[in-house]
């Protein structure tokens, strides 16, 4: 696809790409230059407390020596734990 660079260095990402990646207004994208090629990648942004909790959960799983799934019975349980706003405050 060929697109045009407009005033103020703006571009429009074609609708087919937006749809295929399920992007929506307000989503964040990272743009970088890689050996002369412009790369644009969707990214998720999380609060620092969320990331700290995620690191703690990953370490619990990593340190679990019996090769089980870790302290949670399912991925959903781990995500619910991470997203629990009350426990994030601790």
Which outline best applies? elongated
**Mean pLDDT value:** 83
Reported for the largest beta sheet, the result is: 2 strands, antiparallel
* Broad structural category: alpha+beta
Helix fraction, binned, reads 25-40%
Order of helices and strands: HEEHHH
Number of strands: 2
Distance between the termini: 49 Å
Count of structural domains? 2
Overview of this protein structure:
It is a single chain. By secondary structure, the chain is α+β, with helices and mostly antiparallel strands. It folds into two domains: 7-43, Pemi-like Protein 1, Chain: D; 48-88, no CATH class. It contains four helices and two strands. A two-stranded antiparallel sheet has the order 1-2. β1 and β2 (37-43) form a beta hairpin. The longest helix is centred in the middle third of the chain and has 16 residues, at 48-63. The N and C termini lie far apart (49 Å). The mean pLDDT is 83.
Short descriptors:
90 residues; alpha+beta; Pemi-like Protein 1, Chain: D; 2 domains; two-stranded antiparallel ribbon; 4 helices; 2 strands; 39% helix; 16% strand; elongated
Secondary-structure blueprint:
Blueprint (H helix, E strand, L loop, with lengths): L14 H6 L7 E7 L2 E7 L4 H16 L11 H9 L1 H4 L2
Antiparallel strand pairs: 1-2
Task: Quickly describe the structure.
The chain is an alpha+beta fold.
